[in-house]
Amino acid sequence: MHGALLKSPIFYQKTLMFSVDLIFEAVLFGILLGCFYAAVSLGLSVAFGLLDVPYVAHPALLILGSYFTFVLSQTGIDPIVCGVLLMPVFFLIGIGFYRFYYETFEKRSSDTGVRGLAFFFGMSFIIEVCLILVFGVDQRTVVASYIGSSLEIGDYRFPYRMLVAFGIALTLTVALTLYFSKTFNGRAIKAVGQDEGALRLMGANPVKIKQLAFGIATAVNALAGAMLIIVGPVEPAMDRIYIGRTFCVVVLAGLGSMSGTLVAGLVLGIAESIVMMTFGASWAPAVSFGLLLLMLGVRPQGLFGR
Amino acid sequence: METILEVNNVIKQFGGFTALSEVNLHVLKGERLGLIGPNGSGKTTLINCISGAYTDYQGSIRFDGGDITLLKAHERTKRGIARSFQIPRPFSSMTVMENLLVPFAFVGGKDGPEQQKEAMSILDGMGLAEKAFVQSNQLSQVELRKMELARAMAAKPKLLISDEAMAGLSGTEVDEVLEILFDLNKLGITIIMIEHIMQAVMKFSQRVVCLDAGKIICEGTPETIVKNPEVQRAYLGD
Amino acid sequence: MKYAIYCALVLLGFLGVSTLGGINEYVFFAGFVILQFVILATAWNILGGYAGYVNFGVPAFIAVGAYTAVVLFKSMSAPLLVQILGGGILAGALGLGVGLLTLKLRGIFFSIATVAVVFILETVVNNWRYVGGATGLQLTRPQDLWFFDSYARMLFFVMAVLAVLSVTIARYIQDSFLGRGLRAVRDSEEAAECSGVPTLKIKLIACTISGALMGIAGAPMPMYLSYIEPTSTFNLSYSISALGMPIIGGTSHWIGPVIGALLLATLQQIVTVTISNELNVLVVGVLLVLFVVIAPDGILGLIKKWKQSSK
Fold it and tell me: Cβ(B193)–Cβ(B201) under 8 Å?
């Protein structure tokens, strides 16, 4: 009886539609996920892509943003609002970080590579361990009206929290892209990575510009961190896998390309989603890191890089 | 006199920007060649193609009878091409002597007491002998420039490319470096000098080549170059 | 050959300690860990200190060493020395591979690539049932103790030999052409190329040796623990220690990583036993950041300054 069924054309039609359906759903989910990845990588795109600072502590600051959001949201404030409220705080933190980095490492030229990297790597660990000491290793979540339910269109279910994150991500990306292309400061930031000398001649102070950029990059992390904890539970060690995801997006995009970050995020999101569907969630970490290695080996300047 | 360096139809592009378009240059053995041109004309790009810092250009380069087009920089150094850098790049964790021992070790193959003696005599010829055991990140600008040349000499080059070795130096310092370059040329080394300081170029060069926007616009003796209207236009604008 | 005599004396000392009766077995367990960090710090420094390329993915190489040992042991009951050799060779091959992929690019890309390797390998191991997958594998130690009283003592002495071997290799590299070339690459890769240094080849050699030594440090671990599992083997904390110890000790000389490892690993053992496990990573992290900012030449640098000022 099985044989007859398997050979029946209707059966084949149904299984084919079944897997196309799954792939379509995975791609849709991947798009949502991808926008999210793009948003959490924007800060790194600015700090490392434009300013050339080896900012490996970026993912740790992302998680820090999530935890700050968690603490603030305990007072009853909506997590997104928490994220927005935290932005000025993180802006100041970013300025402080860059100032410190500049005074300590960039100014004294010898051997900056190793020391700068070691510094940010050390900071990453310190942040992670402090979070463990304060909050423990358990996962933390936030509560909001849009978390837990989904939008249903036809056969597909889109979790509201993913849609919210998608919306924020899109807004952030568009806002930053406009800022960098339309405002004087924004354009100065894009220029400072390429030609400091010319910027000086125009009367702008490169250090102040870089400071501003770093502040913006870190402020974005605050909101991105809020998004992270809205999308799912957060634990201190998550900064490790996000090193893979954020650097993958930035390298895939190509250093210095903001719009490329969105495209790269989508690529990663869709890739991860399809891999998770096909092989299971345990293979997800390998996707971002694998894609990263592939890009470094084949096309290190990324898809849109300078 | 034989040709020691042949640059044939070299084209170098960076993305959509053409830095060098069909550059042809022949340098004779033992010649003192000056290379001038306004900022952005492609002088350093050309030098980078000759020294091997860039290997992804079109065209071919021959040196001392052999094709070096595809060779990496360190291989070209071993063949006899040495260069100094526009912004000095000392090995800052090493002393001046140790800086020189690097090319002795990797080009000559030895870095023992004989080579140290040789290094001392090179440094002596440049007036750097007393700084031999000072850490190189403590040298003054002119001393750094001299060390760049000394380090290039330690590679026993047949061709030395001096990339704006005198930029930012005072009048007497410029003369010091110029004298060093003259002495090196007397030893038989071909020298290509890139400079903005016109008096130095005119004093030093037997022949001058002028580059503008990636093309050679004029070649000749210092006197003819100075009078050439195209050169004047390139530097002063229309 | 004063150095050879020192080595012989040190090894005799370790031999003596490991055959001495009446010592608490914990000393040998702690000693194993401390010696492992001496090897890791020394190995890291060959690429990080001498050449300036920062390896963040230390656990990947340790794991290759450890899991190769497990495979060799499980498939053909290979003796310890064969496990160590196999682990070293494969870890060296990994170093070569990562190097070929990224050493042509800027330093930070190499560093990120090393993190990538950790996660990719961990994912592979998690799904590989032969070596225990995510749950891990129990192993029974062979009864071959040579002439030692316990397996822990034997492993302790083996680690001592491996540590002396690693330091000797580092010392040889430092004083050879290779060391000169690596320093030139670190100070200015462009100038090094123009001075005749084959920069890519030299970086690849350093990366391979560094990786191989880390693999050698990892290979005895399965026998040491009688157990292997991915989460602790691939723990990124190894990276912060392996790079913190040379930076704190001093990266310009082979003795720096040794000093850093002996001091910090001992401190870590004390903290783990008296306070907690998390705190020992924090200690290294904080000290690392402090030293990088205030005393970038490490303890060796501080000693040099103190000697110069007291003249």
Answer: yes
pTM, rounded to two decimals: 0.89
Helices C255-274 + C237-249 axis angle, to 10:
130
Question: Which chains reach chain B with 3 or more Cβ–Cβ distances below 8 angstroms?
Answer: A, C
Rounded-to-integer distance, Cα A185 and Cα A181, Å: 9
Per-residue pLDDT tens over the stretch C49-86: 999 999 999 999 999 999 999 999 999 988 899 999 99
> Which chain C residues are within 8 Å of A298, Cβ to Cβ?
none
Q: Report which residue type is found at B148.
A: E
And the tokens for B90? 């000392």
In angstroms, what separates the C-alpha of A28 from chain B's closest C-alpha? 35
| CA separation for the pair B231, B225 (Å, rounded) | 7
Say if CB B128 and CB B136 are below 8 A apart.
Answer: no
Tell me the pLDDT band of C48, cut-offs 50, 70 and 90: very high
Beta bridge partners of B81: B159
Q: Which of A5, A108, A27 is nearest to A273 (CA)?
A: A27
In a mutational test of the A interface, the residue from C102, C103, C117, C123 whose CB has the highest number of chain A CBs within 10 Å is C123
CB C218 within 8 A of CB C64: yes
What are the backbone dihedrals phi and psi of residue C127, each rounded to the nearest 5 degrees, phi first? Answer: -105, 15
Q: B188 CB contacts (<8 Å, ≥6 apart)?
A: B30
Tokens of residue A108, six digits:
């004294």
Which of A15, A20, A59, A54 has the alpha carbon at shortest distance from A37?
A: A59
Q: Which of B99, B102, B111, B107 is nearest to B143 (CA)?
A: B99
Q: How far from A60 is each of A220, A222, A224, A254, CA to CA, in Å?
A: 13, 11, 12, 22
Domain containing residue C187: CATH number: 1.10.3470
Smallest Cβ–Cβ distance between C243 and the set A118, A251, A297 belongs to: A118
- In sign, the C-alpha dihedral spanning B123, B126, B132, B137 is negative
User: Judging by DSSP bridges, how do beta strands B32-36 and B207-212 pair with one another?
Assistant: parallel
Range of the domain at C156: 2-309
Number of neighbours of residue A2 by Cβ within 10 angstroms: 6
Domains defined for chain B, CATH in brackets: 3-89+157-236 (3.40.50.300)
Distance CA A213, CA A210 (A): 5
Query: What is this model's ipTM?
Result: 0.89
Sheet architecture: strand order including B66-67: B17-28, B3-14, B58-63, B66-67
Strand partners, C186: none
Q: Two tokens at A126?
A: 């310190």
Decide if pLDDT at C189 tops 80: yes
β-pair partners for B194: B35, B163
Q: Which two tokens stand for residue C294?
A: 């205030």
Give ∠ CA A127-C249-C106 in degrees, rounded to 5: 65
The Cα-based distances of A230 to A169, A238, C54 in angstroms read 12, 14, 35
Q: Which residues of A touch B92 (CB under 8 A)?
A: 110
Say which amino acid occupies A188.
Answer: A
DSSP B137: G
